[in-house]
């Protein structure tokens, strides 16, 4: 049954909130923003038609406060809630609360979120749907349980210990050798408990030369499940993605068809609706792929898929939430571009430590084939309480070489951010690295090349800028005003 969305509350901040609001503006759907005290002058607050203060800086008092968010929707006349990504986007309890309040939840059902949020249940579902999974053991109670599994299954180190709840790289510890097992087991359980309130873990064989490939799915409530092809998300640091691209340079057309159809089969099996992503680990040595997890939300990197397919995924989520049928079939999706995305975080490019404060200068010259999802503005503040993502920079072209060339131009010449440090120098070093250009990399790329990447760039700090200005002033004083001024 179709339910018309009249106004959308975006239960998020910064880049994800901006992204959702942009589509709502295109569709002339009014929006409500929510904000914490330090975000009162944030970009998403100015973009929305109305905004509600929901608490102080700690996420538990603001962006994770479910009742305040639902009350904000009611008080501003919003009859739908879009969670963006992060915060409450994969919280089954919140999704159910939204629906119980008589509001429209723009996302998959609470039941599916709950089922796929547990890695053990998700893996079991994948096995039942005949989807290949990485060899592993569920819920080991002690390191001895892990040792027994390794002996019985003839598994050698390294292995990966993972929290069964949550995601985003939290609660994941790689174990290289036997002497690390005891400490890694306790570390993974501790991180899982701290991040997700659940210390249960699973253990899997670690694939040495792995690539991270995910398939974007959209599904309506009428049984139509369509894939929008795959994305390559292999360049990561501590299981957090840094650069993404579509399509993947790692796989053949035959593997592409197989992995995409496998993702569709799994999503049909679990009764998925809305937009979602099936993540796989691809073994470059054996050319085999294995199920990792289902992300029951909009992905950060969804923009590269939009660029190569011409589809607005956020808009589709709105259509599906209203009960509409997908207006295209699988054969209508024919990617004809290559797209690249970098995550411009407010972090020190030498060590990835967060950098917060006032953005004293922001210049971005976006030309053809360049797309930006911007969560900051000149004069705005980047607070120390939340994710450090400042903006997403995407480029597209007829081939991978062109997409990389355009990204090089953006990072090298067309972007300037002052007041905070960003990953721009590191991102530029990565896309210029011969191995990246060749498409020859694994999830350990940054780990293997970190020193080399850092050595290849030189930051221009504020002292350098001050010296340039002083030199210019001195020249004007000594030589007079140039003719061109």
Automatic annotation (TrEMBL):
<feature type="domain" description="ATP-grasp">
    <location>
        <begin position="123"/>
        <end position="322"/>
    </location>
</feature>
<keyword id="KW-0436">Ligase</keyword>
<dbReference type="Pfam" id="PF02785">
    <property type="entry name" value="Biotin_carb_C"/>
</dbReference>
<dbReference type="GO" id="GO:0005524">
    <property type="term" value="F:ATP binding"/>
</dbReference>
<dbReference type="Pfam" id="PF02786">
    <property type="entry name" value="CPSase_L_D2"/>
</dbReference>
<dbReference type="InterPro" id="IPR011054">
    <property type="entry name" value="Rudment_hybrid_motif"/>
</dbReference>
<keyword id="KW-0067">ATP-binding</keyword>
<keyword id="KW-0547">Nucleotide-binding</keyword>
<keyword id="KW-0092">Biotin</keyword>
<dbReference type="GO" id="GO:0046872">
    <property type="term" value="F:metal ion binding"/>
</dbReference>
<dbReference type="InterPro" id="IPR005481">
    <property type="entry name" value="BC-like_N"/>
</dbReference>
<dbReference type="Pfam" id="PF00289">
    <property type="entry name" value="Biotin_carb_N"/>
</dbReference>
<dbReference type="InterPro" id="IPR005479">
    <property type="entry name" value="CPAse_ATP-bd"/>
</dbReference>
<protein>
    <submittedName>
        <fullName>Carbamoyl-phosphate synthase L chain ATP-binding</fullName>
    </submittedName>
</protein>
<dbReference type="InterPro" id="IPR005482">
    <property type="entry name" value="Biotin_COase_C"/>
</dbReference>
<dbReference type="GO" id="GO:0016874">
    <property type="term" value="F:ligase activity"/>
</dbReference>
<dbReference type="InterPro" id="IPR050856">
    <property type="entry name" value="Biotin_carboxylase_complex"/>
</dbReference>
<dbReference type="InterPro" id="IPR011764">
    <property type="entry name" value="Biotin_carboxylation_dom"/>
</dbReference>
<dbReference type="InterPro" id="IPR016185">
    <property type="entry name" value="PreATP-grasp_dom_sf"/>
</dbReference>
<dbReference type="InterPro" id="IPR011761">
    <property type="entry name" value="ATP-grasp"/>
</dbReference>
<feature type="domain" description="Biotin carboxylation">
    <location>
        <begin position="4"/>
        <end position="451"/>
    </location>
</feature>
């Amino acid at each position: 049954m179709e339910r018309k969305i009249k106004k959308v509350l975006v239960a998020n901040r910064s880049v994800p909130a901006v992204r959702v609001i942009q589509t709502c503006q295109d569709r002339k759907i009014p929006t409500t923003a929510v904000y914490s005290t330090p975000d009162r002058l944030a970009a998403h607050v100015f973009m929305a038609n109305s905004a509600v203060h929901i608490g102080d800086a700690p996420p538990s008092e603001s962006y994770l406060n479910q009742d305040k968010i639902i009350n904000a929707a009611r008080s501003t006349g919003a009859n739908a809630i879009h969670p963006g990504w992060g915060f409450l986007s994969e919280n089954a309890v919140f999704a159910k609360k939204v629906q119980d309040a008589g509001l429209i939840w723009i996302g998959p059902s609470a039941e599916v979120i709950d089922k796929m949020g547990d890695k053990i249940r998700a893996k079991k579902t994948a096995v039942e749907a005949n989807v290949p999974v990485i060899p592993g053991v569920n819920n080991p109670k002690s390191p001895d349980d892990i040792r027994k599994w390794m002996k019985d299954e003839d598994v050698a180190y390294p292995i990966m210990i993972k929290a069964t709840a949550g995601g985003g790289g939290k609660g994941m510890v790689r174990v290289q050798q036997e002497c690390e097992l005891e400490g890694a087991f306790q570390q993974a359980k501790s991180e899982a408990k701290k991040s997700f309130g659940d210390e249960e873990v699973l253990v899997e064989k670690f694939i040495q030369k792995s690539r991270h490939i995910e398939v974007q799915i959209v599904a309506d409530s009428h049984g139509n499940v369509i894939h929008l092809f795959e994305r390559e998300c292999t360049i990561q640091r501590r299981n957090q993605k840094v650069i993404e691209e579509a399509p993947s340079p790692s796989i053949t057309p035959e593997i592409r068809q197989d992995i995409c159809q496998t993702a569709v089969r799994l999503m049909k099996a679990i009764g998925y609706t809305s937009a979602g992503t099936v993540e796989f680990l691809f073994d470059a040595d054996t050319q085999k792929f294995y199920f990792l997890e289902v992300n029951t939300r909009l992905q950060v990197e969804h923009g590269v898929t939009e660029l190569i397919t011409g589809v607005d995924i956020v808009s589709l989520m709105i259509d599906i939430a209203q009960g509409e049928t997908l207006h295209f079939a699988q054969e209508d999706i024919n990617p004809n571009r290559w797209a690249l995305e970098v995550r411009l975080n407010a972090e020190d490019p030498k060590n990835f430590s967060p950098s917060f404060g006032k953005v004293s200068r922001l210049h971005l010259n976006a030309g053809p084939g360049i797309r930006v999802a911007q969560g900051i503005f000149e004069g705005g503040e980047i607070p120390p309480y939340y994710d450090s993502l400042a903006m997403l920079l995407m480029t597209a072209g007829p081939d991978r070489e062109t997409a990389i060339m355009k990204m090089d131009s953006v990072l090298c010449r067309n972007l300037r951010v002052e007041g905070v440090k960003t990953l721009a120098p590191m991102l530029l070093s990565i896309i210029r690295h011969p191995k990246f250009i060749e498409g020859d990399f694994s999830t350990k790329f940054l780990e293997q090349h970190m020193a080399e990447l850092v050595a290849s760039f030189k930051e221009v700090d504020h002292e350098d800028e001050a010296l340039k200005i002083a030199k210019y002033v001195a020249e004007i004083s000594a030589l007079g005003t140039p003719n061109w001024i």
